[in-house]
Amino acid sequence: MILKSIALRNFRKFERAKIDFPEGIIGIFGLNGVGKTTIFEAFAWALYGSVATRTPLEGIKREGAPEREPCRVEVEFVFGEKLYRVVRELLGKNLTTSARVTVDGKLVASGADATTKFIQKVLGMDPKTFFTSIFARQKEINALSTMCASERRQVIMKLLGIDAVDKAIKNIRTDTRLSKSLISKYESIIIDESSGESKEKILIAKRKEVEEKLNQLRVEVCNIRKEEEKAVRELNEARNYREKVKDDYEKLKQRLNELELAKEKFEEKKRISGEIENILNDLKRKEEEIKVYREELEMFKGLEEELRGVEEKINSLREKRIEKEKILQDVKSKLEHVEREKKKLDAKISRLRSLGPSAPCPTCERILGEQYEFLMDKFSKEKEELLSTERELCQKRDVLSRELERHIIMEKEMEERLKEILKRKEEKQKIEVLIERLKEEIERKRKEIEMKEKLLRSLEGVSFDQEEFKNVKIKERKLYQIYNDAIKRVEERLRELDCIRRKIASIEREESKYQQILMELEEKLKEQREIKKRLEEEKRKVRDLEVLEKLFSTFRTDLISRIRPALSKYASSFLEMVTEGRYGEIELDEDYNIMIYDNGIPHPVERFSGGEEDLVNLCVRLAISEVLSERSGGDINLVILDEIFGSQDYIRRKNIFSALRALSNRFRQIFIITHIEDIKEYVDRYVSVYETENGVSEVRIE
After folding, report:
1. How many domains, the chain?
2. Is the same domain home to 450 and 589?
3. Is residue 227 part of a domain?
4. What is the per-residue pLDDT across 60-77, written as a single tens digit (0 to 9) for each?
């Protein structure tokens, strides 16, 4: 397998990221917590779904991502010379999972479950095996040499999946103990403690007693049923008599209702005739009122023409007043202007007098001399002209003020006249409204008369016989009493029948009780027989489990005996490559202690330098991945090493990278996940993972 690319959208802390992976040693650099390992977790999720992640679905989609945007991972890899493209998504508010796989551009699987099953079939690995075969952490590598023998053996067994066999054996033994416990329990259940007899035998005897009692009750019920039949016949006879009396009574009651209805219609006819006469009298009074109101309206003739004439005069006076107000305002403005000009001229004359003839001119700075008298004369003439203009304007203002006052008085007089006319118009309108209302009432009364006359015509043929009504009413009361007596007889027969049926119900309840006891006994018998059946099944199960435990134990012994040499073989091959033939063999003894052959002599790994120990541990861990890959039948050419340089110094890191270079023929892609920036110089290409200010992770390929 060669990983070609991975694209993330809203996965964990990544909003959008696309990475193309070359072959060789690729570094994934970044601070702790920015999402370096998340990239490969997304790879596993795309292949296997949520079983390959650390969190439920809610924790996979990026926090803060819009609901309408999907969480999506797209992976491309080469496997068996074919290009695989896997896409897995979480869609919508409910995070519905969708997935699909294409091989060389052709769709081969669609749907989340179908995609997972297809990938598992192609790779030959479940999620745990796949991740263990390609992913190695620092603690796993260091633990191979620092743990005691039993702990090291347990870790290697777990990595290889052999611990599943141990779990199976443990589960078999647990099931065996449980089955034996059940056998003891079932044996105690089927025997009665007090008598020591079989509970099944005791229950059969009780069932016979109950069946005899049930037979007695059934005979008793049969006898009472005969009494019930007699009571039913008598009840039916009483009901037939009651129905006959009821029919006679209902016919008489119907005739009485007809007579009562005729009486109501006759009385209604008399009432309507009286109402029509009252309405006619009311109509006559209202027509007289309308005549009086119309005579009053004659007093208001010519009111509209008078109103229009007054309104026209008011509008004309208002227009003239507004015009004169404008002229008066203009005259006042001119007077204010003349007053300002007078003040300016007085200021000039006063200043000129204060200077005198011998003073220099304030404008040209020459001595005034004869010019002084000329200026004084000029200013005096100008003042006379202003005073003349002021007198004319004052006269015009006074005339206009008097005329304006006269127009205002005339306008007010006309407005008073208008108010009087409007008041009279309002009185006229009130009278007109009263006339209209009276007309409406008259029209309504006439329609009411028509309706009542129509109703009266419908009652023309109505007649009523008081004597017949009285006789029918007496007969109805007598027949009603006979009908009530018939009802009472039916009720008595019903009570007798009810008493008989209560007896039957009482016996049937007792019968039902014994039926229930019988059912319970049958159920207990069934339970006893079921427990006997389970007892035999558990005994058979114990025999099967004992055989199965023996088979699994033999299988485990055989598996361990074959895997340890395979691990030694692959680890030796890797060590020979990374040490260029200096050390050619690694052996794992029965306790999985690591022995290294130097010149044909085995030595414990602790004898060698720290750098050599790191290489041996790495080779053993890679051998575990190789065994897992071989067991699955897959061709996995990549390995992911997560933070394996945390405790190594510069020299040991350099040695590990030299070893990784030597292994590049076997592993075409080696991914190094680390936060140590100094390692960048040893990798072929590297990807930087960093977190932005808003908490989103991004990648930069370098």
Report:
1. 2
2. no
3. no
4. 999 889 989 999 999 999
State yes or no: pLDDT of 694 exceeds 80.
yes
Q: What is the average pLDDT score of the chain?
A: 82
Per residue, the 3-state secondary structure of 119-146, as one string, reads HHHHHCCCHHHHHHHHEEEHHHHHHHHH
pLDDT over 60 (residue 359): yes
Residue listed under structure tokens 């006789």: 471
DSSP H helices in 356-465: 371-458
> Is residue 141 in a domain?
yes
| Tokens encoding 173 | 């033994």
Output the CA torsion 546→550→552→558 (10° steps). 180
Cβ-count burial 62-98 (b if 16+ within 10 Å, e if not): beebeeeebbbbbbbbebeeeebbbbbbbeeeebebb
Looking at 458, 480, 505, the residue that finishes a domain is 458
* pLDDT at residue 110, as a whole number: 94
Instruction: State phi, psi for 12 to the nearest 5 degrees.
Output: 55, -120
Q: What single letter denotes the amino acid at residue 555?
A: F
Residues in CB range of 568: below 8 A, 6 or more apart: 585, 586, 587, 588, 623
- Mean pLDDT of all residues in 202-220: 85
The predicted pLDDT at position 629 comes to 62
Residue 221 lies in a domain: no
Nearest to 671 by CA among 258, 151, 137, 111: 137
CA–CA gap between residue 329 and residue 269 (Å, rounded): 85
CATH number at 588 reads 3.40.50.300
Encoded amino acid at 107, one letter: L
Express each pLDDT in 526-568 by its tens digit: 888 888 888 888 889 888 888 988 888 887 777 667 777 877 8
Question: Which of the residue ranges 54-68, 77-91, 273-287 has the most confident prediction, judged by mean pLDDT?
Answer: 77-91
Does residue 89 come out as left (phi exceeding 0), alpha (psi in the -120 to 50 range) or beta? beta
What share of the chain in percent tops pLDDT 90? 14
**What are the backbone dihedrals phi and psi of residue 51, each rounded to the nearest 5 degrees, phi first?**
-65, -15
Residue 272 lies in a domain: no
Show which of 435, 458, 481 is a domain's final residue.
Answer: 458
Let me know whether 14 and 157 are in one domain: yes
Q: Is 673 left (phi over 0), alpha (psi -120 to 50) or beta?
A: beta
Nearby residues of 215 by Cβ (< 8 Å), 6 or more positions away: none
The whole-angstrom separation of Cα 71 and Cα 302 is 92
What token pair was written down for 84? 């695989």
Which residues pair with residue 198 across a beta bridge? Answer: 191
d(CA 198, CA 525): 11
The rounded distance, in Å, linking the Cα atoms of 70 and 72 is 6
Same structural domain for residues 310 and 445?
Answer: yes
Q: By residue range, what is the domain housing residue 131?
A: 2-161+579-701
Mean pLDDT along residues 655-666: 74
Angle in degrees, 0-180, between the axes of helices 610-632 and 138-146, rounded to the nearest 10: 110
Please tell me the predicted confidence (pLDDT) of residue 400. 83
Q: pTM (2 decimals)? A: 0.46
What is the average pLDDT across 403-407? 83
Phi, psi at 14, each rounded to 5°: -90, 130
Q: Rounded to the nearest 5°, which phi and psi values hold at 197?
A: -90, 170
Which are the contacts of 425, defined by CB distance < 8 A and separation ≥ 6? 300, 303, 304, 307
pLDDT tens, 88-119? 999 988 889 999 999 999 999 999 999 999 99
The pair of structure tokens assigned to 162 is 């052999």
Separation CA 315–CA 321 (nearest Å): 10
The band of 365, judged by pLDDT with boundaries at 50, 70 and 90, is low
